[in-house]
Amino acid sequence: MERNTQNKEWMKNAISYLPLVAFVLFFIGKSKNEPQNKHVIYGMLLFWVYLILSIIFSWLIDVLLFLLYIWVSWYFWYMAYLWEDVEVKFVDDYVDKFK
Q1: Residues whose CB falls within 8 Å of the CB of residue 42, separated by 6 or more in sequence, listed in order
Q2: Span 52-88, pLDDT tens digits
Q3: Domain locations in the chain?
């Protein structure tokens, strides 16, 4: 039974890297699960960085940015699914300031 619960938690963490899901989880309700909140914040931040950089740079570079965004999102998703902790120090420090 515990293994099934862990699989659900892994999946919740992993789907946090889909932009729409991350926004819904962030604005609708905060989870009491600290790792899930971390993945939601990372997913949203990743999407915003991609969006801002794609607006700033031309459409030629946008294709490369999109591929980079997909690769980094996939990496974070995969690590969340494996229940590995990925830390981005400056993001964690910034989030800790607002707690």
Answers
A1: 16, 17, 76, 86, 88, 91
A2: 887 877 777 778 888 999 999 999 999 888 888 888 8
A3: 2-97
